[in-house]
Amino acid sequence: MIELDNVSYGYGGGTLFSQLSLTLAAGSFHFLTGASGAGKTTLLRLCYADLRAVKGKVRIFGEDAGALDRDAVAMSRRRIGVVHQDCQFLDHLSIAENIALPLTVSGRARGTAGNLEELLNWVGLGAQANQRPPALSGGERQRAALARAVIVSPDVIIADEPTGNVDWEMSQRLLGLLIELNKLGKTILIATHDLAMIRAAKADVSARTLRLKDGQLFQAGAEL
Amino acid sequence: MNALFDLIVGNPQADRIVPQSGTTARLTVFVSGVMAFLAVIALAVSLTTNRVASLWAEELAQSATLRLPADPATADALLVSALDVLQTTPGISSVRALSQDEQQALLEPWFGPDLPLDALPMPQLIEIVANGEGYDVDGLRARLSAQVPGAILDDHEAWRAPLLDAARRVRLIGWSVIVLIGATVAAMITLAAQAALAANVQVIGVLRLVGAKDAYIARAFVRRFTLRAGGGAIAGAIIGVIVVLLMPQGDGSDSLMLGVGFEGAEWVWPLMIPFLAASVAFFATRSAAFRRLREQT
Q1: Residue B211: inside a domain, yes or no?
Q2: CA-atom Rg of chain A in angstroms
Q3: B175 plus B51 within the same structural domain
Q4: Last residue of a domain, one of B125, B150, B175
Q5: Which residues constitute the domain of residue B236?
Q6: Three-point CA angle B180, B184, B185, nearest 5°
Q7: Per-residue pLDDT of chain B (297 residues; tens, 9 = 90+)
């Protein structure tokens, strides 16, 4: 699905990581951990072509991400659902319209009202469908972001600290949704500090945990 | 064709992805309306100048004056010879020797009504009117110099050339004003579109994240600004046409200001102004939007 081959990246002339390689196979489940500033978000952004590698190659669905034009990047993002920690929405639209946004921009919004309602109920936001995003709590926003990420049934779901702003109960609920998606064959990559969540997930799913440290990726140790 | 259909009909869902911006919208409509109004007035003045100048030039081109020497001893013989030459010249439809009263009337503005013309040696003037094909001016001059010594043919070229030149300049100024108005509309729409795009950085970011292509994002802005500029221009053009219609009308032959307006096919121009304004807005917004989107990841 997504492959990083000896990828280097840095900001302002510095090097954040170098010669880093990673393969996300179809149906795999990966956690990405590391200290703040280690480059987790940058690594995720490289995976959905929001950044371009300074060196090395990023292949997204077999295509060289560095060679994709802007339209091709947009098309590849329709196959990748992204959940950000800060969950940005269009505040002038309702939650239902925000969740349906990937369908709207790809011209597939018509005739999907039933699916949208089902999805809203799946993430527990059926009652909030017509509310505006600012009216939602942190947990509700995270679930809405997850619903938006999966509405087009993407092949890959990338989540950046999806449980960063929610309590334990809500984080378990979100994790449950992601595990459910993985069981449906979706490839999952989650960046998180939440080691308890990783431990909880390993009981239900075969997940690989990677640690980003000093610009290199390591297989996480036995403590997980 | 689909792009044009989308632009006119729109997509209610796609239109809503960009939030409304009240002040920018009202300013765009207002400025577009004012510019369309000015364009209609400039067009009316330019086209009327062109029409009146053409009328005057045509009248001057069709008439000429022959002046015979003021010599009482030879006046009658020269008049007979001159009329004979003129009447046998192809391309001349009529010739007429001006009477003494008519010549006095011509001099009256300069010398007053009491000038004793009988006591003065006055050159005889002959009015020549050409037919549609016209006559050979150089050939006529040659014949006159041989058969009517001292006769001077004035074909009004000395009057016509500066008149046509002045009309050409006024027309050029008129079109320059219209081009400037178009450039001002383009600049204003570009600024407004850039402001709208800058105010919607987060919206654009979200749209790109969910897989929106640049063309889709740009279309939301382009359609909005095109419709605003077109709507404002329709209102401005209608007001401009009403103002032109309310101006005093005349046949345009006596005073330039007594005929400002549109005639016949010229009415196409004020009708085109809203379309031109909308086109300018379309391309200005499209250019600004794609430039901005290329800058934003």
Answers
A1: yes
A2: 17
A3: yes
A4: B150
A5: 2-57+161-295
A6: 120
A7: 566 666 666 666 667 788 877 677 788 899 999 999 999 999 998 888 878 777 777 777 778 899 988 877 788 888 889 899 988 888 888 889 888 888 878 887 777 777 776 677 788 899 988 887 778 888 988 988 888 888 898 887 777 778 778 878 888 888 898 899 989 988 988 888 888 888 888 888 899 888 899 888 888 888 888 999 999 999 999 999 999 998 877 654 555 555 788 888 889 999 999 999 999 999 999 999 998 888 876
Domains of chain A in sequence order:
1-79+154-224 (3.40.50.300), 89-153 (no CATH)
Rounded to 5 degrees, φ, ψ at A93 are -105, 160
**At which of B128, B150, B172 does a domain end?**
B150
**ipTM score assigned to the predicted complex:** 0.85
List, in sequence order, every beta strand (DSSP E) within chain B: 63-68, 92-97, 124-130, 152-154
A105-110 contact pairs (CB < 8 A, 24+): A105/B14, A105/B17, A105/B207, A105/B210, A105/B211, A105/B212, A105/B213, A105/B216, A106/A78, A106/A152, A106/B211, A108/A152, A109/B13
The reply to whether B156 falls in a domain is: no
DSSP string, A73-140: HHHHHTTEEEE-SS----TTS-HHHHHTHHHHHTT--TT-HHHHHHHHHHTT-GGGTTS-GGGS-HHH
**Taking an 8 Å Cβ-Cβ cutoff, which residues of chain A contact chain B?**
50-51, 70-71, 74-75, 77-78, 82, 84, 88-93, 97, 101-102, 104-106, 109, 148, 152
If asked whether residues B23 and B87 sit together in one domain, one would say no
In-domain check, residue B191:
yes
Tell me, yes or no, whether B45 and B78 share the same domain: no
Say whether A105 and B211 touch across the interface (CB within 8 A). Answer: yes
CB–CB contact B211 A102 (8 Å): yes
Q: Are residues B236 and B115 in the same domain?
A: no
Give A203→chain B minimum CA distance, Å. 31
Structure tokens at A114: 């039933």
Statement to judge: residues B171 and B258 lie in one domain:
yes
Looking at the complex, report in whole angstroms how far the Cα of residue A223 sits from the nearest Cα belonging to chain B: 35
Q: B144 and B167: one domain?
A: no
With CA atoms as reference, the chain A residue closest to B211 would be A74
pTM check: above 0.90: no
pLDDT in tens, A166-190: 778 778 888 888 888 899 889 999 9
Q: Which of A70, A88, A106 sits opposite B205 (nearest CB)?
A: A88
Number of domains in chain B: 2
Say whether both B171 and B287 belong to one domain: yes
